[in-house]
Specification:
Transmembrane segments: 6-31
CATH class of the largest domain: Alpha Beta
Largest sheet: 5 strands, mixed
Distance between the termini: 89 Å
Order of helices and strands: HHHEEEEHEEHEHHEEE
Number of domains: 3
Shape: extended
GO molecular function, one term: restriction endodeoxyribonuclease activity
Low-confidence stretches: none
Number of strands: 10
Strand content: 15-25%
Structural class: alpha/beta
GO biological process, one term: DNA topological change
Domain DNA topoisomerase type IA zn finger: 188-226
Keywords: Endonuclease, Hydrolase, Membrane, Nuclease, Transmembrane, Transmembrane helix
Number of helices: 7
Length: 227
Protein backbone atom coordinates (compact mmCIF):
# COMPACT_ATOMS: atom_id res chain seq x y z
CA UNK A 1 0.00 0.00 0.00
CA UNK A 2 1.04 3.58 -0.67
CA UNK A 3 1.40 5.50 2.51
CA UNK A 4 -0.16 8.89 3.09
CA UNK A 5 3.11 10.78 2.70
CA UNK A 6 3.68 9.33 -0.75
CA UNK A 7 0.18 10.28 -1.84
CA UNK A 8 0.75 13.84 -0.65
CA UNK A 9 4.08 13.99 -2.48
CA UNK A 10 2.54 12.72 -5.72
CA UNK A 11 -0.27 15.24 -5.37
CA UNK A 12 2.16 18.10 -4.87
CA UNK A 13 4.22 17.02 -7.88
CA UNK A 14 1.12 16.81 -10.07
CA UNK A 15 -0.07 20.17 -8.77
CA UNK A 16 3.30 21.73 -9.52
CA UNK A 17 3.41 20.26 -13.03
CA UNK A 18 -0.09 21.59 -13.67
CA UNK A 19 0.36 25.07 -12.25
CA UNK A 20 3.94 25.72 -13.40
CA UNK A 21 2.97 26.36 -17.06
CA UNK A 22 0.18 28.65 -15.91
CA UNK A 23 2.63 30.61 -13.76
CA UNK A 24 5.05 30.91 -16.67
CA UNK A 25 2.31 32.01 -19.06
CA UNK A 26 1.08 34.55 -16.52
CA UNK A 27 4.59 35.87 -15.96
CA UNK A 28 5.19 36.23 -19.72
CA UNK A 29 1.85 38.03 -20.13
CA UNK A 30 2.68 40.47 -17.31
CA UNK A 31 6.14 41.14 -18.76
CA UNK A 32 4.72 41.80 -22.21
CA UNK A 33 2.17 44.23 -20.80
CA UNK A 34 4.88 45.98 -18.81
CA UNK A 35 7.19 46.25 -21.84
CA UNK A 36 4.34 47.56 -24.01
CA UNK A 37 3.48 50.16 -21.38
CA UNK A 38 7.14 51.14 -21.15
CA UNK A 39 7.44 51.52 -24.94
CA UNK A 40 4.28 53.62 -25.04
CA UNK A 41 5.56 55.80 -22.21
CA UNK A 42 8.90 56.29 -23.96
CA UNK A 43 7.15 57.11 -27.22
CA UNK A 44 4.94 59.66 -25.46
CA UNK A 45 7.97 61.25 -23.78
CA UNK A 46 9.73 61.42 -27.15
CA UNK A 47 6.72 63.19 -28.66
CA UNK A 48 6.66 65.76 -25.85
CA UNK A 49 10.43 66.35 -25.84
CA UNK A 50 10.71 66.63 -29.60
CA UNK A 51 7.90 69.16 -29.97
CA UNK A 52 6.61 67.31 -33.02
CA UNK A 53 3.09 68.56 -32.35
CA UNK A 54 4.31 72.14 -32.62
CA UNK A 55 6.03 71.21 -35.88
CA UNK A 56 2.73 69.82 -37.17
CA UNK A 57 1.21 73.30 -36.71
CA UNK A 58 4.06 75.20 -38.41
CA UNK A 59 4.08 76.45 -41.96
CA UNK A 60 6.94 75.58 -44.30
CA UNK A 61 8.96 78.71 -43.46
CA UNK A 62 8.84 78.04 -39.72
CA UNK A 63 9.84 74.41 -40.27
CA UNK A 64 12.86 75.44 -42.30
CA UNK A 65 13.83 77.98 -39.62
CA UNK A 66 13.60 75.27 -36.95
CA UNK A 67 15.80 72.92 -38.96
CA UNK A 68 18.40 75.68 -39.29
CA UNK A 69 18.50 76.08 -35.50
CA UNK A 70 18.65 72.33 -35.06
CA UNK A 71 21.60 71.99 -37.40
CA UNK A 72 23.41 74.96 -35.89
CA UNK A 73 23.22 73.15 -32.54
CA UNK A 74 25.17 70.33 -34.22
CA UNK A 75 27.93 72.70 -35.26
CA UNK A 76 27.03 73.27 -38.90
CA UNK A 77 28.45 76.49 -40.33
CA UNK A 78 27.09 78.70 -43.09
CA UNK A 79 23.64 77.18 -42.72
CA UNK A 80 21.48 79.33 -44.93
CA UNK A 81 18.17 79.21 -46.70
CA UNK A 82 18.05 79.25 -50.48
CA UNK A 83 15.97 81.65 -52.54
CA UNK A 84 12.42 80.36 -52.30
CA UNK A 85 11.56 81.28 -55.88
CA UNK A 86 14.66 79.60 -57.33
CA UNK A 87 16.07 77.04 -54.90
CA UNK A 88 17.23 74.49 -57.50
CA UNK A 89 15.85 71.62 -55.45
CA UNK A 90 17.23 72.55 -52.02
CA UNK A 91 15.51 74.42 -49.19
CA UNK A 92 18.68 74.59 -47.08
CA UNK A 93 22.40 74.42 -47.79
CA UNK A 94 24.66 73.45 -44.87
CA UNK A 95 28.40 73.16 -44.41
CA UNK A 96 30.49 71.40 -41.80
CA UNK A 97 34.15 70.41 -41.96
CA UNK A 98 34.29 71.30 -45.66
CA UNK A 99 31.36 69.00 -46.43
CA UNK A 100 28.28 70.55 -48.00
CA UNK A 101 24.80 69.10 -47.59
CA UNK A 102 21.59 70.09 -49.36
CA UNK A 103 18.26 69.61 -47.62
CA UNK A 104 14.64 69.38 -48.72
CA UNK A 105 12.27 70.27 -45.85
CA UNK A 106 8.76 68.83 -46.13
CA UNK A 107 6.30 69.98 -43.47
CA UNK A 108 3.30 67.87 -44.38
CA UNK A 109 0.02 66.79 -42.90
CA UNK A 110 0.32 63.67 -40.77
CA UNK A 111 -1.45 61.44 -43.32
CA UNK A 112 0.27 62.94 -46.37
CA UNK A 113 3.28 60.99 -47.64
CA UNK A 114 6.40 62.44 -49.25
CA UNK A 115 6.78 61.07 -52.77
CA UNK A 116 9.63 60.55 -55.22
CA UNK A 117 9.54 64.16 -56.45
CA UNK A 118 11.29 65.38 -53.29
CA UNK A 119 14.03 62.78 -53.78
CA UNK A 120 14.49 63.77 -57.41
CA UNK A 121 14.67 67.47 -56.60
CA UNK A 122 17.23 67.22 -53.81
CA UNK A 123 19.33 64.73 -55.76
CA UNK A 124 19.41 67.17 -58.69
CA UNK A 125 20.57 69.91 -56.29
CA UNK A 126 23.79 68.05 -55.44
CA UNK A 127 25.78 69.06 -58.55
CA UNK A 128 24.34 72.59 -58.62
CA UNK A 129 25.49 73.37 -55.07
CA UNK A 130 28.54 71.07 -55.35
CA UNK A 131 27.31 69.18 -52.31
CA UNK A 132 28.49 65.83 -51.01
CA UNK A 133 25.22 64.72 -49.39
CA UNK A 134 21.48 65.22 -49.79
CA UNK A 135 18.80 64.91 -47.10
CA UNK A 136 15.03 65.04 -47.04
CA UNK A 137 13.47 65.84 -43.66
CA UNK A 138 9.75 65.57 -42.95
CA UNK A 139 7.33 65.46 -40.05
CA UNK A 140 5.43 62.79 -41.97
CA UNK A 141 6.47 59.59 -43.76
CA UNK A 142 7.63 58.51 -47.22
CA UNK A 143 6.02 56.42 -49.90
CA UNK A 144 7.59 53.03 -50.64
CA UNK A 145 8.78 54.27 -54.05
CA UNK A 146 10.41 57.31 -52.44
CA UNK A 147 12.32 55.07 -50.03
CA UNK A 148 13.53 52.84 -52.87
CA UNK A 149 14.68 55.80 -54.96
CA UNK A 150 16.43 57.43 -51.99
CA UNK A 151 18.30 54.20 -51.27
CA UNK A 152 19.39 53.93 -54.90
CA UNK A 153 20.49 57.59 -55.03
CA UNK A 154 22.13 57.69 -51.59
CA UNK A 155 19.72 60.35 -50.29
CA UNK A 156 19.31 60.35 -46.49
CA UNK A 157 15.72 60.33 -45.25
CA UNK A 158 14.47 61.52 -41.86
CA UNK A 159 10.83 60.59 -41.33
CA UNK A 160 8.57 61.48 -38.40
CA UNK A 161 10.05 58.95 -35.96
CA UNK A 162 13.67 59.61 -36.93
CA UNK A 163 13.12 63.36 -36.75
CA UNK A 164 11.72 63.06 -33.23
CA UNK A 165 14.70 61.00 -32.08
CA UNK A 166 17.08 63.39 -33.84
CA UNK A 167 15.58 66.38 -32.01
CA UNK A 168 15.67 64.61 -28.64
CA UNK A 169 19.33 63.67 -29.13
CA UNK A 170 20.34 67.19 -30.17
CA UNK A 171 18.13 68.93 -27.59
CA UNK A 172 18.37 72.40 -29.22
CA UNK A 173 17.90 75.54 -27.16
CA UNK A 174 15.51 76.91 -29.79
CA UNK A 175 12.73 74.37 -29.39
CA UNK A 176 9.95 73.68 -31.87
CA UNK A 177 7.44 75.33 -29.55
CA UNK A 178 9.51 78.52 -29.37
CA UNK A 179 9.77 78.65 -33.14
CA UNK A 180 6.05 78.07 -33.58
CA UNK A 181 5.14 80.77 -31.05
CA UNK A 182 7.72 83.43 -31.98
CA UNK A 183 8.73 83.06 -35.63
CA UNK A 184 6.38 84.67 -38.10
CA UNK A 185 5.16 82.39 -40.89
CA UNK A 186 5.58 83.28 -44.55
CA UNK A 187 3.35 86.12 -45.70
CA UNK A 188 0.17 85.26 -47.54
CA UNK A 189 -2.78 87.11 -49.00
CA UNK A 190 -6.44 86.36 -48.46
CA UNK A 191 -7.77 84.14 -51.27
CA UNK A 192 -11.16 85.89 -51.04
CA UNK A 193 -10.35 89.61 -51.03
CA UNK A 194 -6.59 89.77 -51.63
CA UNK A 195 -5.81 91.59 -48.37
CA UNK A 196 -2.77 90.47 -46.34
CA UNK A 197 -3.39 87.72 -43.82
CA UNK A 198 -2.28 88.35 -40.23
CA UNK A 199 -1.46 85.90 -37.46
CA UNK A 200 -4.06 85.61 -34.71
CA UNK A 201 -4.41 83.38 -31.66
CA UNK A 202 -7.38 81.62 -30.11
CA UNK A 203 -8.29 83.09 -26.74
CA UNK A 204 -8.79 79.67 -25.12
CA UNK A 205 -5.43 78.19 -26.25
CA UNK A 206 -2.13 79.04 -27.88
CA UNK A 207 -3.04 77.74 -31.32
CA UNK A 208 -2.25 80.36 -33.98
CA UNK A 209 -3.99 80.88 -37.28
CA UNK A 210 -4.25 83.32 -40.17
CA UNK A 211 -7.09 85.82 -40.31
CA UNK A 212 -7.85 88.41 -42.95
CA UNK A 213 -6.57 91.88 -42.12
CA UNK A 214 -9.77 93.40 -43.51
CA UNK A 215 -11.88 91.82 -40.75
CA UNK A 216 -14.84 92.29 -40.15
CA UNK A 217 -15.46 92.99 -43.84
CA UNK A 218 -13.79 89.69 -44.67
CA UNK A 219 -13.92 86.82 -42.18
CA UNK A 220 -11.62 84.37 -43.95
CA UNK A 221 -9.35 82.28 -41.71
CA UNK A 222 -6.96 79.39 -42.36
CA UNK A 223 -4.41 77.42 -40.31
CA UNK A 224 -0.72 78.30 -40.41
CA UNK A 225 0.11 74.86 -41.75
CA UNK A 226 -2.18 75.27 -44.76
CA UNK A 227 0.86 75.89 -46.97
Amino acid sequence: MIDEGTVVSIFLVVLFLFTCPLIIVGFVWVMRKWMKHRREKQAFQRVIQSGIRSIDQMDGHQFEYFLVQLLKALGYRSVKGTKRSNDFGADLVMEKEKKKIVVQAKRYGYKQRVGIQAIQQVFAAIPFYQAQEAWVVTNSFYTASACKLAQACGVHLLDRWRLQQFIVNVNPEMTAQKVYENVEPARRNCPLCGSPLVVRSHQENTRRFFGCSSFPNCRHTEPLNAS
